[in-house]
Write a structure and sequence with these properties.
87 residues; 47% helix; 0% strand; mainly alpha
Length: 87
């Protein structure tokens, strides 16, 4: 653990930190906290599938008419078909 970082728990390991917070509530220690800012870059996992060029054009046109992305359209259509198969 980085010695330069403050710790409300005064723990010396991640395990001790976990044990401390298992027994304590943040509300009890709110006055000991400080504000921080950070960025989170969440990205969904993507898998690519080959699609015939002519079919791809039709997908793009269909999606555009509905005001959604081709990715969203394909996910919705496939989800719908898979649900039909499971019914």
């Amino acid at each position: 653990m980085n010695k330069n970082k403050s710790s409300i728990s005064k723990a010396k390991s991640y395990e001790e930190i976990g044990e401390f917070w298992d027994k304590h509530d943040l509300a009890e220690n709110w006055d000991k906290t400080t504000s921080v800012e950070f960025e989170v870059d969440l990205q969904s996992e993507q898998t690519y599938y080959a699609v015939d060029n002519r079919l791809s054009v039709k997908i793009q046109e269909f999606a555009k008419k509905r005001g959604i992305s081709p990715d969203t359209l394909l996910n919705l259509l496939i989800q719908e078909k898979l649900q039909e198969q499971n019914s």
